[in-house]
Design goal:
The protein is mainly alpha-helical.
């Protein structure tokens, strides 16, 4: 019993940490239309919405964007961006304020991005189901777009694409839930315990 709890805690922590790194370093998970043109990560989509709707101060958005900007500069072998240049770098300086048609057309992807970012940040302190709900909502949003576009005789993947890394994010979100991981470990151990009990009964 104790060992299953320890393993579940360890797996949950590693999965939560890995999901946090995927989100905060803006690993491309999808491609979808947004206020700045095309967004490839939940943080990019969330940041454009936070700036446009003026829900939170700009310094919070900069704090969310900065780790990903640093990671991109290392990957592309560029100089490190300045903290005050982040909004300009991500084309967030001249966004139209208020609600947009994109918000209502891709509501599942938008809401899923909010939940995924919030869940990844909170998961370092207390892992929960927020990230799992967010990632699944994003996947459903893309499936819905494909279905609607097929029914409208349009190119189902025009402007929309899910990267293979999205499956890793969903897996990490699943494994970050400690209770579910513990149940999974118990389900794997149950057949082994039954076999060991049967062998002991036969030997006695």
């Amino acid at each position: 019993m104790g060992s299953s709890r320890k393993w579940a805690t360890l797996i949950s922590f590693i999965a939560s940490l890995f999901l946090f790194l995927i989100i905060i370093f803006q690993v491309p998970l999808f491609r979808a239309p947004c206020r700045v043109g095309m967004c490839s990560s939940p943080i990019m989509l969330t940041s454009s919405q936070l700036i446009a709707t003026e829900i939170c101060p700009e310094f919070i958005v900069r704090a969310l964007l900065y780790p990903g900007a640093i990671a991109k500069s290392f990957v592309k072998n560029r100089t490190l961006p300045g903290y005050d240049e982040l909004l300009k770098l991500y084309n967030l300086t001249n966004l139209k304020k208020g609600p947009s048609a994109i918000d209502f057309h891709h509501l599942e992807i938008l809401a899923g991005s909010y939940l995924t970012v919030a869940g990844a940040l909170m998961g370092l302190v207390r892992p929960g189901r927020m990230s799992l709900c967010g990632t699944l909502l994003i996947v459903w949003g893309f499936l819905r777009e494909v279905i609607l576009r097929k029914n409208a005789n349009m190119n189902p993947m025009k402007g929309f694409y899910i990267h293979p890394t999205m499956s890793i994010a969903v897996l990490c979100a699943c494994l970050s839930i400690r209770k579910d991981v513990r149940r999974l470990i118990r389900s794997f151990r149950a057949p082994r315990m039954e076999k060991s009990l049967r062998s002991k009964a036969k030997s006695s």
